[in-house]
Amino acid sequence: MANRLPSLRGIETFLCVAEVLNYRLASERLNVTVSAISHRIQVLEQEVGLQLFDRGHRRLRLTDAGTAFLERLRPGIRLLQDATMASRGEPARPLLRIAAPPLLNGWFLQHLGQFQGRHPGIRIELLSSGRRRSASVDVSIVPLTALHQRANVELLMNIAISVVCSPALLAANPVTEPRDLLRSPLIDTIPSLKGWNEWFLAAGVDEEIPPPALALDDQALLYPAVLEGRGFGIGMRSLTAGYRAAGLLVEPFAIACNFSPPLGIKINEVGNVRLARAFAAWINERLVSPADEF
């Protein structure tokens, strides 16, 4: 039958695989075998007459046809979810999916409650932008590279960085000039974001930077490590403002510099647009400070 709809089980499997881009993770989520996931995807591709995934690379990825299919499915899936909840007599709880760099996670955990307070009953999924495709989220916060500018990503904020540390660390490791930091415990990420390079240049220090005392392959751990007094770190001033106001972090030097690229924000026009735009307005209000200078 030419107009026969694909199976809902196949659609469910496709949505899960498209989100995690990994058959094993999808099998764990759906509590089936990896071979069952593979079979369902093959059957779905036959039903819709499209190759949905590119399996020729080390990592599974959506084809252009798969991305387009996903974007067209999402509004229908939301309608199906709302219809199911309405049939049960339950109020619909809108879902907002946010993809952002891990470095922002700590700030989000502190402040997302304010956004939820403005929109009672909503559900939020905070996803790593490095692991999710834009088609699976409602709003993405990304480095505003030339590639993203061509993809209609709007400027969210320019980034100003400074050195931060705990008051206890500064008391134990007094520094009087920027060069002193070269002999102090530094914290950086793996791979390095090169923030130390930019800051030392802005501070007039043109010397080789020693390896960090602590290197983290998870950006989300950077600020907790600095708060614990494990070393001096480079922080985005907008993200450390709350810590500094509370006296949990200090800036040993009144030196800040711009860091490129800036952050951009993109709204998925086939996602939950109304809630995504409300979130974009809120984060502009909360995160972007009009005068974050010394």
Automatic annotation (TrEMBL):
What does the UniProt keyword field contain? DNA-binding, Transcription, Transcription regulation
SUPFAM superfamilies for the chain: Periplasmic binding protein-like II, Winged helix' DNA-binding domain
Which GO biological process categories is it annotated with?
Answer: DNA-templated transcription
Q: Its Gene Ontology molecular function terms?
A: DNA-binding transcription factor activity; sequence-specific DNA binding
Its signal peptide is none
Please state every residue range assigned to the domain named HTH lysR-type.
6-63
Query: In which domain of life is the source organism classified?
Result: Bacteria
Family the UniProt entry places it in: Belongs to the LysR transcriptional regulatory family.
- Name of this chain's protein: LysR family glycine cleavage system transcriptional activator
Species this chain originates from: Novosphingobium hassiacum
